[in-house]
Amino acid sequence: MTTSRLDGMTAAVVGGGALGETIEDCLRRSGAAPWLKTPSPATPTEPADILVFVAATAVDFAEAVAVGLEAAFTHARSVLGPMRRRGHGAIVFCATRQPAAGDCPIAAGIAGGLATLARSIAYQYGADGIRVNVVLPGVLASDADIAAAILLLASPDAVFMTGTCLPIGQPEPSRWPG
After folding, report:
1. Contacts made by residues 78-82, CB under 8 angstroms, sequence distance 24+
2. CA terminus-to-terminus distance, the chain
3. What is the pLDDT along the chain (178 residues), one digit of tens a residue?
4. Are the beta carbons of 123 and 93 closer than 8 angstroms?
5. Backbone angles phi, psi at 11, to 5 degrees
6. Could you give the CA distance from residue 105 to residue 136 in angstroms, rounded to a whole number?
7. Coil, strand, or helix at residue 25?
8. Bridge pairing between strands 50-54 and 35-38
9. Side-chain-side CA neighbours of residue 151 (13 Å)
């Protein structure tokens, strides 16, 4: 019997649609259980060892802030206390995919906001064993690529990584914040 890197850890995935399902499957296969499914980005997350927040795509900036930054902050805040008491935890924010062509200031703004939020939480809670990172998916990244990056950042294998932005499948990584 092979022991997984995430055996015994609880995980919660917020948002993401089909991507969220791929992330859930990847984390489940790696041993994270019992599984906590959060029905809505507006609902605070139950305490978990791992929180994965997938920012929703939005049409206007006000909506993007509500479903991206505000929801990410609310969910992170709901798990930080329990993670702090346990002395460990991992939060992974996942920005929306950056379009290949043209400017997308809303997606870039939310990605930059998630990067800043992650660095701020990582700085404040790093001494408590809580790691916070961001995955920045590009148009060349498949759902499986994104899920693998999230799995890496959530696992104990990345104990040395916090406050980091990890670009995945991007034709021009320099265009992303972080």
Report:
1. 78/44, 78/45, 78/46, 78/47, 79/12, 79/45, 79/47, 79/48, 79/51, 80/121, 80/125, 80/130, 81/47, 82/47, 82/48
2. 40
3. 233 467 778 888 887 777 888 888 888 888 776 555 555 555 555 667 888 888 877 667 788 788 788 889 998 998 999 999 999 999 999 987 765 444 577 778 888 999 999 999 999 999 999 999 999 988 788 888 999 999 999 998 999 999 999 998 876 555 555 5
4. no
5. -140, 150
6. 15
7. helix
8. unpaired
9. 23
Of residues 157, 74, 164, the one with CA closest to residue 118: 164
> Of 117, 100, 126, which is closest to residue 165 (Cα–Cα)?
117
Half-sphere exposure of 162 (CA within 13 A, CB side): 20
Three-state DSSP at 53 gives: strand
pTM over 0.85? The answer is no
Measure the CA–CA gap between 153 and 48, rounded to whole angstroms.
15
Domains of the chain, start order = 11-175 (3.40.50.720)
